[in-house]
Amino acid sequence: MKENSAGLVRTQSVTFKEEFFLQSGRILSPVTVAYETYGSLNEDKSNAVLICHALTGSAHAAGYNSPDDEKPGWWDDMIGPGKAFDTDKYFVICSNMLGSCYGTTGPSSVDPSTGRPYALRFPVVTVKDMVKLQKKLLARLGVEKLFCVAGGSMGGMQALEWGVTYPDAAESLIVISSAGRITPMAIAFNTIARFAVKKDPNWMDGDYYGKASPRDGLAIGRMAGHITYLSDAAFHKKFGRRLGSQESIYDFNSVYEVENYLRYNGYKFTERFDANSYLYILKAMDIFDLSYGFGSYEEALKRLSAKTLLIDFTTDFLFPPYQTDEIVDIMTACGNPPERVTIDSDYGHDAFLLEFGEQAAVISAFLRKVRKK
Q1: Which residue is catalytic, options 200, 274, 312, 316?
Q2: How many CB atoms lie under 10 A from the CB of residue 109?
Q3: 12-182+289-372 falls under which CATH superfamily?
Q4: pTM of the model as a whole
Q5: Which of 100, 153, 177, 277 is catalytic?
Q6: 153 noted as active-site residue
Q7: DSSP track, 172-226
Q8: Is 349 part of the annotated catalytic residue set?
Q9: 73 vs 5, 125, 277, CA distance in Å?
Q10: CATH 1.20.1640.10, domain 186-283, yes or no
C-alpha cells in the first residue's frame, strides 16, 4: 500500500425509490448511486469536497478496496493524508455517474418493469442529470453546501454544471482539462466510437446481455478515444515509428508499436466497461452545453459565483487551451475572474491523470486561499 494512501475503503451505495425526473422529461425509479468517501465530515459540515470522475471512471478515486489490490483508486496521488485533497482536512466524496456501469443505475441495470437489463430502453441522461443525482446523494449524507467541487475532463464539465445550476451550493470549483461544451472535433471522435459499437454484429441493438458482447466494436471505439488523450509529442516520445514485430513491412502482419498500444488498450477496456454505458455517456458529453436554458454561453457563466480555479495543459488535444481562454474572458468580463494555471506538458489530455506534482501544488495553494476567506 502506498505511503499516505487513503487506506482501505469500501464502495457504498444508496437507492432512491422515489421518482427521479430527468432533463429529457423521462423518469427513473428506483435509482442507485455508488460512492466512496475519504476523511471525516467536520462538526459544522463545512469541509466536504466532491470529486467528479471522467468519462469511464468510477467512484473508486483513492485508496484500496482490498488488501490484495495491485492498484489504488484512479486519483490516489491527489487524495489522501497530506495530498492536494488532504483527507486530514477534507471530507472527500466521489460518486459514480448516472448511466455508468460501476454501481450507479445505467443501461446494464435491471429494469424493474421487465426484470431484464434496460439496454436501449434506458433514457438518455445528461450532465445536468448526473449533477442533480449527486446533489441528492449529498443531501442523504448530510452535506448542504460543498467546500469544493473538482474534476477533470468530463468531471470538470460536472463541476461547471454545479456552478451554473446550483450557484450557492459550492464555495469553490476546480475545473481541469475541461470546458462548458466540447468541440465539433471531439463530437466527431465520439461519433466514430458509437458507430463502431453499433456496427458490431454482437451489439444486437443493445440487447446483448447474457450473450456475446460487442467486444470488437467497443475496442475500436476506445482506440479512437485514446488518440485524443495523447499529444503529437507524446506519440513521438512513446512510440515513434518503431515496429512492434519483426515481420516484413510489405504485408499486413507487421505492426508499429503505436498499433499494439491502441489494440491492447482497446481490448483491455472491453474487460471492464459496458458498451451501452459507453454510448450513453458519450452522448451526454456531446449534448452538454452550459448555454442550454440560458440563451447564451455568457449568460450561463454569469451565474458562476464560486471561487474558481481553471487548470489546462499546453498540448491538450481534446480540450484545447483556447476553450479555457474563452471561460476566463467571459468570467473576467462578468466581474468574477477565475484563477487560471496552464501547465506545460507533453502528455496531452491525459496530463490531468499523470502530472501530479505541479497540479497538486496549484490545487493545494488554491484551497488554502479559499479556506482563509
Answers
A1: 316
A2: 21
A3: Alpha/Beta hydrolase fold, catalytic domain (3.40.50.1820)
A4: 0.96
A5: 153
A6: yes
A7: EEEEES--SB--HHHHHHHHHHHHHHHHSTT-GGG--TTS---HHHHHHHHHHHH
A8: yes
A9: 10, 25, 20
A10: no
